[in-house]
Design goal:
- By secondary structure, this protein is mainly β.
- It contains 2 helices and 13 strands.
- The chain has helices at 32-45, 104-107, and strands at 10-17, 20-27, 50-51, 54-55, 63-68, 78-80, 86-87, 93-94, 114-119, 121-122, 129-130, 142-144, 149-151.
- A hairpin with a 2-residue loop joins strand 1 (10-17) and strand 2.
- The protein is globular and about 55 Å long.
Length: 167
């Protein structure tokens, strides 16, 4: 059975890490746990074993999603989609489940929106998994007006080989 892409319950989301972009068609009500599993499966199905020298995780739980700080300008940076657990007055972590962590609808994601992703990696400090919270490895294409070409995203107009010959 074919998927009806005109269905308003479906979103196309763009997931970016380094120079890799994966497009996924997901339901607005689908859990982020399921979406992360689909993302990891999509990457693995292409035969990719690492992105920018970082190996793929074994579990979808080790995929971390981020949203742009400014939806109109992703170059401003990214923030973690999941709302972190908060500590109560006794220093204990209180498990708070947020609707924002559950689905694209709850997070206010729109069709065509770009999300960053990164992987938790084993830390040398301890046996747990650790990430650098501030590091989002996303390379966005930019347009170089003087050269008339796109940097990090391909060339526009005449293409020249490295030795200067036109192709």
């Amino acid at each position: 059975m074919a998927t009806d892409i005109s269905n308003p319950e479906l979103l196309t989301l763009r997931f970016k890490k380094h120079k890799t972009t994966i497009l996924l068609l997901v339901s607005r009500q689908e859990s982020f746990t399921s979406i992360k599993a689909k993302l990891l499966d999509a990457i693995k199905s292409t035969g990719i074993t690492q992105i920018n020298r970082q190996p793929l995780p074994r579990k979808a739980d080790d995929v971390i999603l981020g949203v742009p700080i400014d939806n109109n300008d992703p170059s401003q940076g990214w923030i973690d989609l999941e709302i972190p657990d908060i500590e109560d007055d006794g220093g204990k972590k209180a498990k708070k489940t947020s609707v924002l962590n559950a689905t694209p609808l709850g997070a206010g994601l729109k069709d065509g929106m770009v999300l960053a992703f990164k992987f938790r990696q084993e830390s040398a400090k301890d046996d747990g998994m650790d990430i650098d919270d501030n590091e989002w490895d996303v390379v966005l294409p930019t347009f170089d007006d003087e050269e008339g070409s796109q940097v990090n995203g391909g060339d526009k107009g005449d293409t020249q080989a490295e030795d200067g010959d036109e192709v």
